[in-house]
Amino acid sequence: GRKPWRQKGTGHARQGSTRSPQWTGGGVVFAPTPRDYSFKMNKKEKRLALKSALTSRVNEGKLIVVDELKFEAPKTKEFAKVMANLKADKALVVLNENDANTVKSAKNIPTVKTALTNTINVYDILKYDTLVVEKAAVATIEEVYA
After folding, report:
1. How far apart are alpha carbons 35 and 16 in whole angstroms?
2. Sheet holding 112-116, edge to edge
3. Residue 82 lies in a domain
4. Is the pLDDT of residue 124 over 80?
5. Full domain range(s) for residue 101
6. Across-strand partners of 132?
7. Would residue 44 count as lying in a domain?
8. Comparing C-alpha atoms, which of 144, 43, 53, 133 is closest to residue 96?
9. Using DSSP, how many helices (H) and how many strands (E) does the chain show?
10. Alpha helices in the chain (DSSP H)
11. Is 14 helix (H, G, I), strand (E, B) or coil?
12. Which CA distances in Å does 59 have to 55, 91, 111, 115?
């Protein structure tokens, strides 16, 4: 942090530090600063967007309601068989409560994502072609968003 040379009498321009931008190894003048690009969206807009996304899936016939998805043990092969029977290859599976076996069974399939009723979002609904929902989850969603 000391001055590289004295202020007057050297014939050089005055310098305060070797860390200033014009020196080799010095600072950067307009360095990139970390910025937060997130923005706030109104609660009512979020709810309306979710309702709209769910309605579009229903109108397209891409919403499949299942009584329940229960597995004795976490078996990916069994889950894949269920998805094949439903003809849902790229699907978002919405569960009412967190069932560890179902979540673990679906975890290793790259085209399937599991979500709880309180964690569903518009992006996931639109990203996945088919929406597979448990009957209890439908009741919860209707209760919250209808």
Report:
1. 30
2. 63-66, 130-134, 91-95, 112-116
3. yes
4. yes
5. 52-145
6. 64, 93
7. no
8. 133
9. 5, 4
10. 43-60, 76-86, 100-107, 122-127, 135-145
11. coil
12. 6, 16, 22, 21
End-to-end Cα distance, the chain: 65
Query: What's the CA gap between 23 and 87, in Å, rounded?
Result: 65
| 87 belongs to a structural domain | yes
Distance of CA 57 to the CA centre of its chain: 20
Distance from C-alpha of 102 to C-alpha of 139, rounded to nearest angstrom: 20
| CATH code, 74 | 3.40.1370.10
Q: How far apart are CA 54 and CA 48, in angstroms?
A: 10
pTM of the predicted structure, to 2 decimals: 0.72
- Grouping H, G, I as helix, E, B as strand and the rest as coil, residue 11 is coil
What are the backbone dihedrals phi and psi of residue 135, each rounded to the nearest 5 degrees, phi first?
-60, -45
Taking the C-alpha atoms of residue 71 and residue 103, their distance in angstroms, rounded to an integer, is: 10
Beta partners for residue 59, in sequence order: none
CB-side exposure of 88: number of CA atoms within 13 Å? 23
Tens digits of residue pLDDT in 16-65: 999 999 999 999 999 999 999 999 999 999 999 999 999 999 999 999 99
Whether 20 is covered by a domain: the verdict is no
Structural domain total, the chain: 1
